[in-house]
């Protein structure tokens, strides 16, 4: 089925998408805000052998504590659009919701304490750290590394992870992906992701004004979507508490596979981000960069890596860590030197 995965629903599931998030793109569609690139942090390459991403939890964590400024700004813009709420309700009815729900869980494997208990524990721990109820987790057979979230009205939200993503990532990295998806739920992104996909896909089916409405909103919606992804990368870092884990996920999704995983280098990937930033800093480069990213649902992976590297060294992140509560008797992550 041709589809697009969403945080609040799943209209389709695009076979060419390789992004981790609640909405998948038809190819490597990422964008990024323009931010001055700072110094690159050097990371020790280590390999996790026992998992607990963190020995702390954020008892009173609010979504705005880690929400990206561009997410805040573009959310306000969306809320100011007249009639957006009503239009979304018209386009998404109860029957459509049921179709989406059954399509996504009918061919997947429900994870629980008795089924893939290790994955279940990763989700429970990530939800505990972010101070949010754990959604259901499903594993779906697919050769395309991806994960997405559904939040159907009146039903418990759930996250779907593709088998190829499980094979590609380490346990720590996979937990960071789960935390990214939890970030969408924590920030109530589901509503806006629903509208974005309904309007950019479904609105074109409305006679007359439908296409005009969708075209006029599409650019603004994609601008918000890219900002929302930056927010959820921060949620991933709050759980992993190691920027190299989050950056490694982005690196692997950009050009990794199981047979190459042990040869990938986070520092080199950040240097690549610096090269892109430098190449796009000229007037011509700036124009090409904006043309390249304007219609993308996700920021470019190298720029997402740069963003999370910078936030990991920011005062805001440091303050959040100081607010965290230590967990007594939590399992520690043991590491050995990477290959």
Automatic annotation (TrEMBL):
Record-level GO BP terms: proteolysis
Taxonomic source organism: Prunus yedoensis var. nudiflora
InterPro entries for this protein: Peptidase_M48
This protein's name: Peptidase M48 domain-containing protein
Pfam family, one: Peptidase_M48
Zinc recorded as keyword: yes
Entry keywords, A to Z: Hydrolase, Metal-binding, Metalloprotease, Protease, Zinc
Co-factor binding details: Binds 1 zinc ion per subunit.
Residue intervals of the Peptidase M48 domain: 119-311
MF term (GO), any: metalloendopeptidase activity
Domain of life: Eukaryota
PANTHER family the UniProt entry points to: CAAX PRENYL PROTEASE 1
Cofactor(s) for this UniProt protein: Zn(2+)
